Amino acid sequence: MSIVLTEAAADQVRRQLQRRGAGFGLRVSLKRTGCSGWAYVVDYADAVEVNDEVFEQHGVNVVVDRDLLPRLEGMSLDYAREGLHAAFKFHNPNVKESCGCGESVSF
């Protein structure tokens, strides 16, 4: 099982961790919300919990709760600038549909 982090995303995570001054890596999670049911959550990972899986991509650790892996397996996470906006972009082959505003997905 794996989650892929592009070089652009890894560079952004490294910059954020450097600014923060601490952190083990990036935690990728899901929460129930929105019209389609699930939203991605990206946060700092300061520690690895018992139920966590760790993936290393381009020198950056990506931490995911094992219970979420069936929904996140094969996902790639990119970081892109579009005009004045910059954000992480999720490309998940497990998504069945997403809401019109793009804030939530269903599996």
From TrEMBL:
SUPFAM superfamilies from the UniProt entry: HesB-like domain
Annotated ranges, domain Core: 1-103
Molecular function GO terms recorded: 2 iron, 2 sulfur cluster binding
InterPro entries: ATAP, ATAP_core_dom, Fe-S_cluster_asmbl/transfer, HesB-like_dom_sf
Gene Ontology BP term (one): iron-sulfur cluster assembly
GO annotations of cellular component type: cytosol
Family (UniProt): Belongs to the HesB/IscA family.
Alphabetical list of PANTHER family matching this protein: IRON-SULFUR CLUSTER ASSEMBLY 1 HOMOLOG, MITOCHONDRIAL, IRON-SULFUR CLUSTER ASSEMBLY PROTEIN
Name of this chain's protein: Iron-sulfur cluster assembly accessory protein
